[in-house]
Each structure stands twice: as structure tokens, then as C-alpha cells.
Amino acid sequence: LYVDTPLNAGAAVTLEPAQAHYLGTVLRKSVSDTVRIFNGHDGEWAAEISMLSKRGGSLIVTDPLRRHHDAPDIWLVFAPVRKHRTAFIFEKATELGVSKFVPVITARTQFAKLNTDKARAQIIEAAEQTERLDLPEVAKPKKLDSLLDNWDKGRRIIFADEAGGGHSVLDILRNYSGPCALLIGPEGGFTEAERDRLLNMDCVDAVSLGPRILRADTAAISLLTLWQSAQGD
Ligand code: SAM
Asked: For ligand 1, what atom is nearest to the CA of residue 187?
């Protein structure tokens, strides 16, 4: 269970009504049962339920269970797509260990608005389910040009280029390990000018995900899975 408080032995944690409902009704826990909690920085701890009701609850932190572990430094830079598919990207990419989401507004992005509170709730739920101990960050949406103008060249961009001509992802990942960002375009794809700019950046590797045109969410998940199998930990 994710809690937004510092974790050390004896600390008291106040539960939101939704968390109390999840523990009491869904997991059928009761007072003095033990639960596992994390806050994204201090690893995983055991905690005892000290109070549980429909209106909320409280825990007392007892013992450390797992040391904090940061996901590898892998960003997903993606053009937001329609709401439910973007929610799917947040959920699946969190399960697949992404460390930061960078929503990017390209020429053909149709869904520039992003509800970051909703995204955070989706990310927390996915992190709890996948039992990771850190929470990926969600950056504010940025225009592609200004993102590239200010890009730290020490971070390679693996650019999923549907227009073909890309390398095989595994060939790229076999020869590179380090800070990395996966770049996925919108439903309408990248413009020629965007592709030209990207292909002329020496920190960019264009990759192909096969001969078929994938939906952006499929492309994001496939690329992250390939990255995880080549370099994840
Ligand atoms: N409108 C574009 C077209 O028809 O060519 C398709 C864009 S696709 C729906 C969304 C994004 O997924 C693309 O911009 C690209 O980043 C990625 N993508 C989809 N299929 C891909 C493939 N076969 N190889 C590499 N990237 C792909």
C-alpha cells in the first residue's frame, strides 16, 4: 500500500477512507493485522493496523522488509493519445519499470491536455500492484521542439520511427546501457520535419518495431518490454 509519509519504526500512518475501504473490505483485513507499505523513497515496511473504519484508519509502522530500490533510469517520452489509451500507457509503463513519463506535444498530437492528478493515481495503483518501491515521475507536457532544444545529450533517445529505416531495438540496446528515453509519437505519427530533426541528432537512435503500424500504446509497451528484457533490473 502506498502511503505519503516518512517511514520509520513506530511512525503512525493515517489512512484515507479509500485505503481503509481497500484494506477492510477488499483485503478483509482487521485491527492488529499486518500490511506492507511503501512511500517511494524508504523501501518497504511492515505496519500493524491500529484502527480501521469506513471513515479511515491508522497504522503503526513496525519493521523494514525491503531496502529502497530505484527503477533503472528509463524515461518514456510519449505524445498523449485518447484518454483510456493514455491511462493504459501510464499503467503498463509503470509495471514495466519506467522512471519518468515525459508527455510531449508534437505537430499531430490531438490530446495535449493531461490530468496529472489522475495519472498519479493510476501510477500509484500500478506501482502497488507490481510491488515496485519507487514511483515514476510525471513531467509537465512539453512541446517537442523545446524538449529537444534543451535535451541533455548524455541521455540517448530511442526513437520509435514508424516510417521505417530504423534499426532493430535489440541491436541498439546490445551496444548501449545508460540513461535512456523511449520516444513514441501520436496517433497521426511524426511529421517529416520532426523525423528529420530527430534523425539528425547524434544522441538519437531510430528503431523499428516491425513492418506493421502499431497503436501508440502498443508501441510504448513493446519498446519498454524490449528495453526491460535487454537491460532491466
Ligand atoms: N499515423 C502513423 C502512420 O500511419 O504511419 C502511425 C503512428 S502510430 C499509430 C504511433 C506511434 O507509434 C508512431 O509515431 C511510432 O512512434 C510508433 N510506432 C507505431 N508502429 C511502429 C513501428 N512499426 N515501428 C516503430 N515505431 C512504431
From this structure: 9
Question: 127-164, pLDDT tens digit by residue?
Answer: 999 999 999 999 999 999 999 999 999 999 999 999 87
Burial class (CB in 10 A: 0-12, 13-18, 19+), 5: middle
Q: How far is the CA of 151 from the centre of ligand 1 (A)?
A: 22
Mind listing the pLDDT tens digit for each residue in 6-26?
Answer: 999 999 999 999 999 999 999
80 lines ligand 1 (CB under 6 A): no
ipTM summary value: 0.96
**DSSP count for the chain of H helices, then E strands:** 7, 12
From ligand 1's centre to the CA of 57, what distance in Å? 47
Distance CA(100)–CA(96), nearest Å, equals 12
